[in-house]
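Example 3.2
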Amino acid sequence: MPDKSITKIELKDPIAWGDKKLTEISFRAPCAGDLRGVSISGIAQMEVEHLLKLLPRIAIENITAAQLETLSARDTTRLFHGVQGFFVD
């Protein structure tokens, strides 16, 4: 049975990650501490600053907000949908 607490999103437009290209981002379900300073309603409304704050905290890959800022709009939207899935039952 797959672990539903981990979400993997394939990037349609890979981004630079050190000397490699990152083609997917995996992240775990956030815990309360990860949400410190992040507005859940901001995530629901797809406000990028909240995603850029939360995703580096929960990503399996060691990725920074600066690297995430280079994501394409379509990959950013896909990541939002993945993160939002943790907030619905």
